[in-house]
Amino acid sequence: MSVYLRPTKPRTAETSLGTNGENELVNNENVNISKVENKKYKTEICVNHKQEGSGICPYGDVCVFLHKGDEQFEKRLEFEVKRQSHVESIQKLHADLAKATEELAKATGKLAKQKQALRDKIYNEIGRKVREWNNPHPNGPYYYDVHGMTQPLLAEYIQEIIAKMEMSNVHQAKVETGKGNHSPYNFPALKTFLVTEYPRGMFVPDENNSGVLILTLEQSCSKIE
Ligand SMILES: [Zn+2]
């Protein structure tokens, strides 16, 4: 409650702007902090403006999420539709994989060989689909959405990502494993795998999004400050 009774920061800064160098500095810092805090400002679609939403948002113009009519709305909507279709195709592959694995367990002889080949084909298709989704960088460069990967497929992919980063002298990337809520494929297992199986500090949860890990490569020894 008391927080609302305090003068707001912009107002404090406004009244002292240009009269006191120190306050100006404070003001600049505040601006930077709010920019960091609002990194996700108007990047995701408001639940009320999603297809299944009412179209009416109680926050109106002050809502931090995208509304119909906002500049980035259509672009983001297009991305979400594409992502949904990607997620569905991965889910279908997992269902096919489960079925093929079941059939393989029952098969013998020549049939077992056929079933094994089919299962391998579906398995590798999952890895291929995830790469295909990330290659055009729908979320920006060095952002990898690895939803639906199995642990061995992910390990292989991470190796490729690291090689690419090293080649381009890039030290940070983001890996989206998802939070695992309502997930039929145990996505948090991927997050745990990356955090625990790789060197300490290499994968750290993004404080802005617990479904994302920040991958940091150590800089070469010669660059130590
Ligand atoms: Zn809204």
From TrEMBL:
<keyword id="KW-0175">Coiled coil</keyword>
<protein>
    <recommendedName>
        <fullName>C3H1-type domain-containing protein</fullName>
    </recommendedName>
</protein>
<feature type="region of interest" description="Disordered">
    <location>
        <begin position="1"/>
        <end position="21"/>
    </location>
</feature>
<dbReference type="InterPro" id="IPR036063">
    <property type="entry name" value="Smr_dom_sf"/>
</dbReference>
<feature type="domain" description="C3H1-type">
    <location>
        <begin position="40"/>
        <end position="70"/>
    </location>
</feature>
<keyword id="KW-0863">Zinc-finger</keyword>
<dbReference type="InterPro" id="IPR002625">
    <property type="entry name" value="Smr_dom"/>
</dbReference>
<dbReference type="InterPro" id="IPR000571">
    <property type="entry name" value="Znf_CCCH"/>
</dbReference>
<dbReference type="Pfam" id="PF00642">
    <property type="entry name" value="zf-CCCH"/>
</dbReference>
<dbReference type="GO" id="GO:0008270">
    <property type="term" value="F:zinc ion binding"/>
</dbReference>
<feature type="zinc finger region" description="C3H1-type">
    <location>
        <begin position="40"/>
        <end position="70"/>
    </location>
</feature>
<keyword id="KW-0862">Zinc</keyword>
<feature type="coiled-coil region">
    <location>
        <begin position="90"/>
        <end position="117"/>
    </location>
</feature>
<keyword id="KW-0479">Metal-binding</keyword>
<dbReference type="InterPro" id="IPR036855">
    <property type="entry name" value="Znf_CCCH_sf"/>
</dbReference>
